[in-house]
Fold:
Amino acid sequence: MTRIAEVIVDVPLLQTDKPFSYLVPSEFSDMISPGMRVHVPFGRGGRLVQGIVTRVINSLAEADDYSQNLNELKEISELLDVEAVLSEEQLALADEMRHKVFSYKISIFKAMLPNLLNSKYDKLLTKENGESIRWSTLNTKEQLIAMKDFHSGNGAITYVAESKEHRKTEKFVVPNWEALEVYEPTKSSKKRIEFRKILLETDKKLPFAEAVAMASRPIVNLFAENGLIKIEEVEVSRTTNFFSDISSDRAKSLNNEQQEAFNQILRADSEKTFLLEGVTGSGKTEIYLQIIAEALKIGKTSIVLVPEISLTSQIAKRFIARFGEKVALLHSRLSEGERYDEWRRVKSGEAKIVVGTRSAIFAPLQNIGVIIMDEEHDGSYKQESNPRYQAKDIVLWRGKFHHAKVILGSATPSLESRARAERGIYQLLKLEHRANPKAQLAEIKIIDMRQNLSDQSANFSHALLEKISEKLIKHEQIVLLLNRRGYSSFVMCRDCGFVVKCPNCDVALTLHMDTRTLNCHYCGHREVIPQVCPNCQSRKIGYYGSGTQKIEEELNNLLPDVKILRMDVDTTSRKGAHEKILKAFGNGKADILLGTQMIAKGLDFPNVTLVGVINADTSLNLPDFRSSERTFQLLTQVAGRSGRAEKHGEVLIQTFNPEHYAIQLSQRQDYEAFYATEMNFRRALAYPPYWYTVLIVVSHKEEEEVVKRSYEIATMLQRNLTEKAKILGPLAQPVARTHQLYHYQIIVRFRFEERLEDTLNQLLDWTQLVENRDLRVIIDFDPMNF
Ligand code: ADP
Ligand code: ZN
Ligand code: ZN
Structure:
């Protein structure tokens, strides 16, 4: 019987969710299933593209799309997997997400898979007896052999190693020691005699690499050809080094507060969502560890999500220390190979606990017992490119699917989550004290920069400089937070006010002293720093503002002997750089850790007794309705880095807005008051969690086209949505041009709008139909930077 597979193809700019129907060749009609990758001929030229099988049907009558005739269908040319790489659960999740994130399904599939499986590497085939074996990246050699046996039921195969996607090592065995002993090389070949001797003298377990090191490869091969030795290939995981040099650790006995929360979680029915609100250092992570241990006991798996960057390395160590190789790490700092190896450890069921950043929520775990989202308020849980998903939505979806418990943890929950707890949708659990009773919460002081500006420095108050010196004398460590990277924000002419801007984007270029260039943070454009103003030829052109590099330089001038480690996007771009900096600081190799917000979270250094916030206003002044919330969260998080052990911790916050409630309340570390105050603002100004926003961004290289299309979209929204939704715009985006494209935006605000989802999906369909292919339309539900 001829079977038909529906395939979603990966073709750039195709912009459709329509599956295409293909005939399944008889040789794998028994094997094919939804979730497998295939190569199919596509378009007029019939070039091969990769796709995902979403459905297998027995006749065209069952197909969604009747437009094709059976005799017009093309055949699938290659089946790339033996086992589906996307599970039924993931396929169902993609269906669901498709209607919520307003981007094409293929982009969702790709987000779910490790990149190696998305790339189009040439697959190697082995042909033996005229029969081809289809190589799959998911297959181990053993699986391939099994597959071959399954097909033909006969003999051995020659297997051609493929190396891009697996790391292999060669294992060396002597199949027959007697044969080796009686082997007599001719007298002329001294090297062979030597090699035979070496082999016989080993303890018969000599690793191949060492033997090869002693003999030349041709000799080794010769021995292999004569059947004296056998070379076997074995796969090695690229991630085994994750588990080295971490000493193991045992469960701590919980304090009363922790025990109470732990009991509530453990005793609750499955499928419940908890909001664990606990001050920094209250022992939330210890609760996660113990809940996961309980899940393991009953054979269930767990996911722990942590924010991007800094948290991962330190927090991952704690999970590995407790659970060893049962942990798989899936975060953005892995190489493609490492990520793929870890993914397969999860897929095969070997790893039971996944610790990772945003996309780890797609980890192919089965039988999930608990999903934890640490620092649940963090902005990095929302993906800012297609598919624009909020990981929390997927946490909740998968929690439901697996009847799992969900724990959202934070010292400063997002207003959305906290409001849901108020309404009983989540169960609120509170930890109000630090787990270590000797580690009191730090004492926080606000420095009014309007009165405290030092004449030595534009960035440091007397108070902060004095405090730093005091700590240096005591050999205690200091964390300084500056929420901005680069040397300074921009270069400006003091005579004519000219600012050097990016030629592609409507933004000022940022000065980078290490490379002595002006860089665009949007498109990566770089140029040399001008000596004279390009506009008026004045020499009074210079830099303004302050970035981490400038602060470092200033600090070096003010305190010449001080050792500073700088941590920002620029110093951590190389792999492992991040861990290196933290390790050095932990070992006391520097007095000051200066960094951007990546140092605010999760770090646990007992010798840090001072945290200085150089300018609390940078995040406060962002044109974003969440700016107060972000500031409160950031200050609370960073304050939590001070005095984590016995030593008394202090925090100095420099600000030009000392009366602002976000700053005042973070000084008192009063989340409850902040929540109440901020909710009043949100209600008054109609922001989440009262009203929600959809941001639609229309882009094209010609402004005229953008304007025309934006108005078409706005009209279409007016027509389709009810009066309950408010439509604002179109108007030019705050940064009106980037990457040589003009951007216009339309904002839809709504409280309850039953026609929203349909309308936005219609808009997505419409964008496929407009003739102008260069038009880009982004639909962003609840945008993060807004
Ligand atoms: P959080 O995740 O809330 O910031 P952690 O779990 O990191 O808190 O705990 C803060 C510190 O207290 C850590 O050093 C941790 O090892 C320690 N700790 C946590 N729970 C306990 C406990 N029950 N007994 C002793 N120490 C604990
Ligand atoms: Zn000028
Ligand atoms: Zn640019």
About this structure: Residues 692-781 form a domain with the Alpha-Beta Plaits fold (CATH 3.30.70.600). The two ends are 55 Å apart (CA to CA).
